[in-house]
Specification:
- Helix 5 links the parallel strand 5 and strand 6.
- The protein folds into three domains: 115 residues, NadA-like (Rossmann fold, 3-Layer(aba) Sandwich), CATH 3.40.50; 82 residues, NadA-like (Rossmann fold); 83 residues, Rossmann fold.
- Helices cover 41% and strands 16% of the residues.
- The protein has a four-stranded parallel sheet, with helices on both faces. Strands 6-5-7-8 form a four-stranded parallel sheet, with helices on both faces. It has a four-stranded parallel sheet with strand order 10-9-11-12, sandwiched between helices.
- By secondary structure, the chain is of the alpha/beta class.
- Bound molecules: 1,3-dihydroxyacetonephosphate and iron/sulfur cluster (SF4).
């Protein structure tokens, strides 16, 4: 194992590359190089987008899923962005196409379209602004329009609607996408865990179904938010024990950051995120500068990159 870590770190220098890792990576890809791992930066989807704009290296190896690596490329067209497995997708991103958005706009003329960043570049290109789970509420509230189209996550949209109704009375028109990970946190599975761990607080992602959110927060304290909100909340809460209603491997960062707290982490993992391994990260790095590079490199048509830039850039004003 140490040999592979050493080779990855040596290749990063040789190939002028950095590794950006999402919090849902397997734990071995979450550890930063300065503490014995290989990652140069770890973050949620917004944090990774911000970091992508700061990277000095010529090459970015993105340990995450394709919609995230595409966002990094669009923000940095002059850099090369590689993925250990170019097939790492997302059930939300694949639930909607550019054509679907065009049809929605025809059915609801003049209504602004907010695209969750979990969409492919072609879809983003048809939208007015992107958001992540960290800034969705602020972005939705910033529009004057009484109605907004929010795509593609129906559950996140319903959760957002609850908060927006309380704050602004705005109405969201929703699509039917679902995160195949977070939809598994059902009311009955969560209520069983809440009975087993009555002193625990809940750490719940926006992508969990509304009926689970409503039932859980009726009885139990905690946070509903983005990955970053979840990490921050634990630091501010006096509670000792937490039930994680989000991707299981986020538990690695939580345990590492708060070694004195206890986390109940149901073993629900994103199969797309898990396509990234140390082995294929090494292969992607080896391929940089060779004929094999295109197997790993994000390559988007210039016109799509240009049109998807504006909604992403607008999102970056809400960091
Ligand atoms: P974050 O924006 O919280 O990183 O979430 C990304 C994601 O894929 C959630 O399932
Ligand atoms: Fe997509 Fe869900 Fe996986 Fe995130 S956890 S990448 S939203 S399938």
């Amino acid at each position: 194992m140490n040999e592979i870590l050493a080779e990855i770190n040596a290749l990063k220098r040789e190939k002028n590359a950095v590794i950006l890792s999402h919090y849902y990576m397997p734990p071995e890809l979450q550890v930063l190089e300065n503490v014995g791992g290989v990652a140069d930066f770890i973050g949620d989807s917004l944090g990774l987008s911000v970091e992508a704009t700061r990277v000095k290296a010529e090459n970015i190896v993105f340990c995450g899923v394709a919609f995230m690596a595409e966002t990094a490329k669009i923000l940095n067209p002059a850099k090369k962005v590689f993925m250990p497995d170019i097939e790492a997708g997302c059930s939300l991103a694949s639930s909607i196409t550019a054509k679907d958005v065009k049809e929605l706009k025809q059915r609801h003329p003049g209504i602004p379209v907010i695209a969750y960043v979990n969409t492919y570049a072609e879809t983003k290109a048809e939208c007015d602004i992107c958001c992540t789970s960290r800034n969705a509420l602020r972005i939705a509230a910033s529009f004057d329009s009484e109605e907004l189209i929010f795509v593609p996550d129906i559950y996140m949209g319903q959760n957002l609607q609850q908060s927006l109704t309380a704050q602004t009375g705005k109405k969201l028109i929703l699509w039917h996408g679902r995160c195949e990970v977070h939809e598994q946190f059902t009311q009955s599975s969560m209520s069983a865990l809440e009975l087993m761990y009555p002193a625990a607080e809940i750490l719940m992602h926006w992508e969990v179904p509304l009926e689970t959110v409503s039932a859980s927060f009726q009885k139990t304290k905690g946070v509903l938010g983005s990955t970053n909100d979840i990490i921050k909340y634990v630091g501010q809460s006096p509670a000792h024990q937490f039930i994680l209603a989000s991707e299981c491997d986020l538990g690695a960062t939580l345990k590492g950051t708060y070694p004195d707290k206890e986390f109940i982490t149901p073993c629900i993992k994103c199969p797309h995120m898990k396509k990234n391994t140390l082995q294929n990260t090494l292969q992607a790095l080896r391929a940089i500068g060779t004929n094999d590079a295109m197997k790993y490199e994000i390559d988007l048509p210039a016109d799509i990159m240009q049109r998807a830039y504006l909604p992403i850039k607008r999102m970056m004003d809400f960091v």
